[in-house]
Design brief:
Number of helices: 1
Helix content: over 70%
Order of helices and strands: H
Shape: rod-shaped
Oligomer: single chain
């Protein structure tokens, strides 16, 4: 049961990490990839 609670608590954290990583890709990776051309 503790594992179930931990898993449910992880889901919002994973979603936040995905959202943060998407912002990081837009800010960091895109200028490096497309700025050369």
């Amino acid at each position: 049961e503790n594992g179930e609670v931990g898993y449910k608590q992880l889901i919002p954290w994973i979603r936040e990490m995905v959202r943060t990583n998407q912002n990081w890709v837009k800010e960091i990776a895109e200028p490096q990839l497309f700025g050369k051309y």
